[in-house]
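protien #1 (seq + structre)
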Amino acid sequence: MTKILITAAGSYGDIAPYTGLGARLRAAGHEVALATHDSYATLVRAAGLEFRRLPADPRTRRTATEPGRPSSPGGNRDLMRQAAAFIRELGTGLADAAREDTGLLLLSATTAPLGHHLAEARGIPFLDLPLVPGAPTGDFAPVVSGGRSLGRWGNRAAGRLSLRVIDRLYADATRELRARLGLPPATPRTVRRRAEAAGRPVLHGFSEVLVPRPTDWRPGLDIVGNWWPWHAPDDRLPPVVEDFLAAGPPPVFVGFGSMAGGAGERLSALAAAALRRAKVRGILQSGWAGLSAGHPSTDADLLTIGEVPHALLFPRMAAVVHHCGAGTAAAGVRAGVPTIPVPVTADQPFWAARLAALGVATAPIPFKELSGDRAVARLSHALTQATEAPARRDHALAAAHRLATEDGATEVLKTVEHLTAAEHPPA
């Protein structure tokens, strides 16, 4: 039995997959804690994991320039400053999360550049578990570049530049954390290159159904399949949702997760109008945007819901409209239903393009274009394409069957047990 600490930071989609992974490790006999923000304490404890607090909770740090809101002319610079401040605050709490008896660190993409210093100072083995591809490759451009290929040379160059940008974001936090841990000064780039040179394993928590392993990645960079958010085996959809599903044909899900804060009224009206024009029923998930279909008596073909496991809801849908975060994109594929991608920012255009290339999604509608006089017509047309094209649903079902053969959490467990056996060989 190993005392394992998982660290993850960000929004729901950055945290929830690690609850399922942690539950799998716990079922194998390990003692598992998950360090993350206060907003997810209930989620962590429900999965049977110990909760440890990390600062910088995004639910309490949202600002006027958050993704999905218009930014000022200096918006990119503002976002970089905000990201660096988020990381510095995160670094102040990360060292406190690891106890003296921690035997293994499992690190998300956001926490890994900080966790490596903690592992060095405490002599704790670690394993990086990102949810998106981060290592440069000629096969595709960096996930934050919008999903458009720049050619093999251009893709690799952009990938290296992306890593340097990340190094810059972590520079202040690295300096402060290393000083606190009593480590000699070292830049994020130096520490990153040291880990790369050591050839340490990195297990990526997504499926090759969506992203085949790049041909030019070094050995040890592996794609193992998704680890899914935990939910109780006896979980059921709320009665109000079951009643709505029973009252008519399968509806379309519309939700933007942690995106589009403050745009709920406009998006709700747009979604309702598009659903009516496409002659389909709809379920609107409130999320951070605050989507709402209004009072049920106003339109019996629309329903507003809060947090519901995608694993239970998506298979009951005719199609799903969402922002294409990594976890939501994978959940749609897993459910075998077509997607209408509305990517907002960061890696979302990348996943939207992957879904479309796989044939399980309509052409992406960038969020910034989901406004103006033609927005309702454009979304309505996509809804009709998604719900009335048998070939797209066939592609979705075929992808779901492939995804069902994968077990990412068990692949992580195998590597965890290999690492811990190497650290503590039998006497």
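ok now protien #2
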Amino acid sequence: MADIIQVLILGLALGGVIALMGSGLALVFGVMRVVNLAHPSLIIGGAYVAYWGFKFTGADPIVLLPVATVIMGAVGMLLYKLLFAREARSAKYSEMTVLLTFALAMIVEGLLGALFSNTQRVTSPDYATDAFFLGDVFIPKGQLYAGLISVLLIGALALFLKYSRLGYAIRATAQNREAAELLGVNVNLIGLVAFAIGIGLAGAAGSLVSFVFSFFPAKHWEWIAMLMSVVVLGGMGSILGTVIAAVLLSVIAAFVGTWVGATWSTMTFFLALFIILLVRPQGLFGEKPELA
């Protein structure tokens, strides 16, 4: 019984971090219809901000989280202005963004590799290798802190989207861009804000990832299928669905890794993506597309 509780705790903690990693991706798709394959590479960008901040100043990666969020949010605003703003009305916009963000991911990887090499790195605050012990069960402090902070950030995002005027506008744009524009919503500004928030969340996730996982520039290729799995399973554009899917798949992957083998743990996400696309392509909380 203790073994089951142990695996469940580890799966839940990592599920919170993966949910934060995917929430920005879901937000950007929901508002802008951008399938951002570069999102994991931008998470790694946030991880490097935390890593170098920790190395040069000794500041805790959690303390550096707002810094990584603001820096990556500013990067998101720049990318939106340069790459995504002009073609937003195109009927083929989503398809175009797949190729565009794939190229962007390779550019970011190459830039990070040129600047920092492909050496694996990890920030090492004291709690990263420490744990709480409850009888036969241990809870890694690093994973616990990262999971709890992820939940808090996602909760803050949900409150912002539900209760703020800007949140109303973002949700209206996500539901029906044309109708929101007719009602006076500046959809171009909302797209810019939503994209900045989405990439800012990638920076926040990167700061937490920096002490939970080791990372290097090409690491994002290992994460893109995992993040697409949770976003597609939850329903493209649904933040709630992404959170539920992330926790569900992380717990399943933890049990698979323990009972079957670590190699099969990652396969859980790939298999889930394959099955959901076959059985229910709109995901758990997505709307079924109407046939013309």
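The chain has a mean pLDDT of 88.
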